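Duplicate of #3305? Posting structure anyway:
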């Protein structure tokens, strides 16, 4: 991969795109959506090739689900583009303005970051989401997907480029480049492209994220692995807690916003645990601490072979299973739950189910995470669900951006100062 040539082209694309109006960018994105729709069969065929190859390698079904496109996911790709088109253009937005003591007019305005790279695994929808967000916010983007999704990403990128060509003068073809090589040296070159790439975003497994964070010489917006917790508080509504637990674990266990650990107040063990175990029986393996396992094994109604509960090990807590596995632990108070979560989480998404308003507010104020829920599933941590249309990922850091990253996450600001001859 010739990183110098690629970045030079992207820089030129970013420069051209920075001059485009919101109407021009929206026209180009509309043309892209039309091209993707036209090539639906080609894209789904390419995706089927990737999915079959993944299954042939023995990839777990939870991870295959992240890779696979179906009618619903394909429609969501097009819906995301439409939402982004209808969002306001952040570029040029005035964040603040004031008059300096010497009379100069100072304005702080949003501007694009420039050239953005994203290194990601599976999830071919990220190809379109990342491009669309970058394009609308005036950035050029370098896409480096995984080998497992290469056929899908090539088909999607070809459709995107066709759409940009269809847009005529409103389309900037140099604003996107897909790395089609599967050589890991590509990643090394991207991470070392000082002065050529303005920021890189890793999106995928903890291993990928750690590799990028540990080796990057360019700025990183860190997206985190999702070790997410659900805490069922004393006196919580059992039916609500069961529904939230089932949704947060089973809807998409391979997603970063699925829960990996269930914490249960000791007073709720005899009532809540059997109820949630029945809901998860035959679907989820429970890795329970001593107190929880004793309750689960003593409940005669669950001894029909459907319940799969085993003793937990220390390493099960704080681990991202990305599978139909859930660690379960008893705690004595909301304070203990908060301390445990802050010790074991990845600063992603955490939830408390409670009827106690003081406990809810303590949980939200003291938990260190990008998203903290009261009585709602962690599965809502998503750019689409937050109204962004799409997302670049879930930032778990505290600088620049945190939580689901939409258009504004790909902007920075500059100060524009107008004077009339002032000197210092």
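Output from current build:
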């Amino acid at each position: 991969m010739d990183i110098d040539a690629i970045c030079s082209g992207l820089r030129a694309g970013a420069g051209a795109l920075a001059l485009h109006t919101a109407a021009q960018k929206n026209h180009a994105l509309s043309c892209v959506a039309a091209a993707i729709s036209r090539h639906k069969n080609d894209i789904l065929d390419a995706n089927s090739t990737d999915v079959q190859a993944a299954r042939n390698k023995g990839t777990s079904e939870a991870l295959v689900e992240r890779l696979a496109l179906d009618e619903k996911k394909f429609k969501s790709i097009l819906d995301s583009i439409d939402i982004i088109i209808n969002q306001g253009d952040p570029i040029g937005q005035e964040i603040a303005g004031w008059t300096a003591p010497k009379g100069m007019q100072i304005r702080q305005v949003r501007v694009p970051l420039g050239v953005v790279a994203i290194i990601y695994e599976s999830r071919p929808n990220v190809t379109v989401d990342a491009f669309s967000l970058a394009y609308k916010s005036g950035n050029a983007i370098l896409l480096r997907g995984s080998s497992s999704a290469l056929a899908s990403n090539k088909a999607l990128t070809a459709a995107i480029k066709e759409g940009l060509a269809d847009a005529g003068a409103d389309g900037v073809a140099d604003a996107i480049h897909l790395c089609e090589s599967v050589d890991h040296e590509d990643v090394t070159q991207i991470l070392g492209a000082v002065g050529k790439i303005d920021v890189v975003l890793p999106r995928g497994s903890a291993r990928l994220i750690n590799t990028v964070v540990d080796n990057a010489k360019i700025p990183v917006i860190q997206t985190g692995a999702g070790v997410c917790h659900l805490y069922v508080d004393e006196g919580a509504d059992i039916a609500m807690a069961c529904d939230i637990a089932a949704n947060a674990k089973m809807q998409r266990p391979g997603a970063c916003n699925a829960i990996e650990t269930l914490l249960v107040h000791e007073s709720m063990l005899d009532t809540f645990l059997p109820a949630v175990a029945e809901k998860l029986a035959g679907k989820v393996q429970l890795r329970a601490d001593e107190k929880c396992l004793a309750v689960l094994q003593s409940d005669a109604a669950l001894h029909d072979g459907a319940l799969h509960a085993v003793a937990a090990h220390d390493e099960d807590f704080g681990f991202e299973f990305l599978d139909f596995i859930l660690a379960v632990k008893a705690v004595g108070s909301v304070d203990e739950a908060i301390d445990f979560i802050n010790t074991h989480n990845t600063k992603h998404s955490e939830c408390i189910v409670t009827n106690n308003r003081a406990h809810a507010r303590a949980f939200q104020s003291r938990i260190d995470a990008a998203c903290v829920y009261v009585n709602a599933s962690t599965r809502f941590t998503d750019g689409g669900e937050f109204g962004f249309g799409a997302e670049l990922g879930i930032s778990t850091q505290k600088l620049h951006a945190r939580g689901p990253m939409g258009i504004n996450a790909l902007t920075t600001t500059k100060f524009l100062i107008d004077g009339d001859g002032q000197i210092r």
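Confirmed duplicate; merging threads. The chain has a mean pLDDT of 94. The radius of gyration is 24 Å.
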